[in-house]
Amino acid sequence: MQTDHLDGNALAGPLAEIFTADVSAAVSRCATCGLTGPVAALRVYDRAPGLVARCPGCEEVVLRLVRGPDAAWLDLRGAVSLRIPLGGANPGAVATDGGAAGGG
Amino acid sequence: MTRWRVARLVKVRDENPSARTLVFDVPGWPGHLAGQHVDVKLTAEDGYSARRSYSLAGPEGVELTVQRVPDGEVSPYLTLDMEPGDELELRGPVGGWFVWRPDGPAPVLLVAGGAGIVPLMAMVRARRAAGADTPFRLVYAVRSPERLYYADELARPDPGVSVSLAYTRRAPEGHPRPPGRLTAADLGPYGEADCYVCGPTGFVEAAAALLVELGHDPARIKTERFGPTGD
């Protein structure tokens, strides 16, 4: 059993630097095998320059994120789509200032 | 966009010989949901910085419980050296998937492996704080009694919350369950529930497989892995 990976929950902070919505709660579709599932459930490898997220079904790369000193590189070639929940009723609305605090 | 905030340590509490809880004052903290985490950044005088993710341990304010990892870059500082009044940078709350909301009606099954108890304890505490009557069951796998977090709090009765401890290496004298790895019997019998599993990667894979084996719908099993070391 491979135990050297994290999961897509670990992408929440680094992606929150770029996007207003919480991408870790989005549903992605793998470009290789078509599996859909939450970004939070991707396998994330962080022992590299940047973060590499792989599909839990076929192990192909779905997303890569590298943060340089003055820019971020986001490679999404392995994702056909991301369905990003928006609006007050979704569980993915992460608080920015004054945001989804305490479920409100 | 979520920015880095300055957090000042106000209080520490030892949980066991190798873990402690740190309570921070973070001006402008917007609040969070149980299960969310923060990214912590420590920067050395030479500019080198190290980042780690830690789950929020309580329903309100910024409270983290950190396990000391020998030779870790960050956890020895947090668990041994950092003193009230010291500051660090943190970003959050982040993570909107591995969360529980007090208005969720479904029964909840929480499965913790070691330090994976932290976000699940935040859910137990959020339930209590909200006065929710959602049935909760917590199965907490831990190596030995010295590794337990929140021992006193877990031993106190909390109506509607059942707690089972599964010691994996050494159990205290008189404990009814012999030490050993988590089995389907520890998680069963099956009852419809939203499941949350958190722990080291290997533990999470094994526990999630046991839940599926028992009949739980994989779509209702949420998992969070913190890697091989947690540091």
TrEMBL record, chain A:
Any Pfam family from its record, for instance, is DUF6510
Q: Which domain of life is it from?
A: Bacteria
Protein's name according to its UniProt entry: Uncharacterized protein
**Species for this entry:** Microbispora rosea
Q: Where is the organism placed in the taxonomic lineage, from the top?
A: Bacteria, Bacillati, Actinomycetota, Actinomycetes, Streptosporangiales
From TrEMBL, chain B:
Q: Name one GO molecular function term.
A: 2 iron, 2 sulfur cluster binding
Cofactor(s) named in the record = FAD
Query: What domain of life does the native source organism fall in?
Result: Bacteria
Describe the location of the FAD-binding FR-type domain by residue ranges.
2-100
Key words, A-Z:
2Fe-2S, Iron, Iron-sulfur, Metal-binding
Q: Which Pfam families match?
A: FAD_binding_6, NAD_binding_1
This one is known as Ferredoxin-NADP reductase
The organism named in the record is: Microbispora rosea
Q: What taxonomic ancestry is recorded? A: Bacteria, Bacillati, Actinomycetota, Actinomycetes, Streptosporangiales
